[in-house]
Specification:
Blueprint: E1 8-13, E2 25-30, H1 34-40, E3 42-49, E4 60-63, E5 72-83, E6 87-93, H2 96-110
């Protein structure tokens, strides 16, 4: 598999899951850096959805600058580390400004020491 870049959007199989985790085959946004992705066999990613969310930022962020065919939101609270074997194909990439907003949203969720 070619290098998986930070900001790439891939199809991923997120099953099996538990509780309120996002399930099934869905797009994910890669947050981890390329060097980590290349060396670890895993990526840190957040799930995407086309279902309009009830919660706004920092829990979700609409992506408006991608080539995805539907309106799409990042579910910032649905972050997980997954094997690169769960990735099924690159769809597109996220703009650097939207990627930065997702990372800011994650910072809002986990807070600072």
């Amino acid at each position: 598999m070619a290098s998986i870049l930070r900001g790439d959007i891939y199809w991923a199989d997120l099953d099996p899951t538990g509780g309120h985790e996002q399930a099934g085959r869905r797009p994910v946004l890669i947050l981890s850096r390329t060097a980590f992705n290349d060396r670890s066999g895993t990526v840190v990613a957040v799930a995407l959805t086309s279902a309009e969310p009830r919660a706004g930022f920092p829990l979700t962020l609409e992506l408006t600058q991608t080539a995805l065919p539907k309106r799409t939101w990042v579910k910032i609270s649905q972050i997980r580390t997954i094997s690169t074997q769960r990735l099924a194909g690159r769809l597109t990439s996220c703009s650097s400004s939207e990627l930065q907003r997702v990372i800011e949203g994650l910072g809002e969720l986990i807070g600072k020491m």
